[in-house]
Amino acid sequence: MTLTTVLQTIIGGLGMGSVYGMVAIGFSIVYRAMGLVNFGHTDVLMIGAYFMATLLLTAKLPFVLAILLSAVATGVLGLLFERVLRPLEGKDLNLMLIGTIGFGILLEAVAILVWGSVGTAVPIPPSIHPFRVGSVVILPYYLVIMAVGALCVALLHLFMTRVKLGIAMQAAAMDPPIARAMGVNVARCNALAFALGSAIAAVAGGLVGPLLYVSPAMGASVGIKGFAAAILGGLGSMPGAIVGGLLFGLIESFAASRFSAYTDVIAFAVFTVVMLVRPTGIFGEQTVDRA
Question: Global pTM?
């Protein structure tokens, strides 16, 4: 493998890894807040991608505005879903898990009814052209994905550390009973966790749409890798979600460059080995038990 190929592989891996990292952040936010794995999160990503594609191709909105509006729409969807699950919170975690699975199945059925089962091709914005640095041809869209991913992480960090509601969310995640005693509305914090996770998933889905075929099945293909990235980094850890996503993207990219037919097999084989060595992930589990 030449140096040129290595650099191109790294850029592609970091681009897709940024998508997986954003998906992993969505999983980790909800898990950190409620101790719940939201299995419907993968289909929220798919709905976000369809929203973006519809706004871009049918409503003819600018690419950035289409992604922002799809993030808002799926954020509201996350709020509604949390409200449905709220009566079960703290009572039956198993039913909540089943509820998230059912929610994902419902979203996939709705997507097929509204957009059909064939799928939609979304073009990369025409203003983004490949450019050459020495002998390396770089697709700027991967750089755009990385930049947006970094912006989402930075904004989330500022919200969680500088904004009163974000600080309250962290308090509610660390110890709900004490947070309630201090006047924190834990239910509202959990709803916000769902909304933020869903909005970030929509951004990830909208960004990856032009690289893949937007279809009802895309949530499973992209979302499962985002979930693996969250576990790889340490489910519940925000830094772990980012690192896990980038690592998974790089592993997948290098595997595809040499053994394209076995990309997923190799990526998940490496993931399995890491989990055997460190079952709690790279950064360890950073949440409390809600069961």
Answer: 0.92
